[in-house]
Task: structure prediction
Amino acid sequence: MAKTTKIGLGGGCHWCTEAVFQALKGILKVEQGYVASSDANSWFSEAVIVHFNSELISLQTLIEIHLHTHKSTSAHSMRHKYRSAIYYFSEVQKTEAQFILNGFQTTFQNQLITNIYPFSEFKASREAIQNYYLKNPEKPFCERFINPKLKVLLHQFSEFVAFEAIPEKLKTIQKQIHDH
Result:
């Protein structure tokens, strides 16, 4: 039986984060919406809940991909809406995520601003904007903001990409990457 678990991830727009994680092997479901933590971080910010088979893709890989597909070192003015976060569901997961995050700091030139928070509450996005990239890959937003993140996946993490889950256009880009 598969080992299914979940982790909450927030970074940029939840349309982008959803598209990145929907494109990976071992992902069972990505819930797009808004996540709140607790105490001083109890406000909702855009995020996803990623349900995954930990025998096919590790938490370490998910966190590494997350750090490389959003501005994880940038404390920009929209951080209230787009908190750079990992939301844990257990104390064991918190400890593991902190260990992983600390280990990746050395691979970044600037300080990671990604924080680890306890998961408190989730509100799903309205149905019309769920699976946004899969429904609208040709929209200007997708071209401008999501495709560059997916290109990072194709270039740096191709062994984890579920090619059947990405639009044909990105398969062409993947072929160009490998031909060079």
DSSP finds six helices and six strands in the chain.
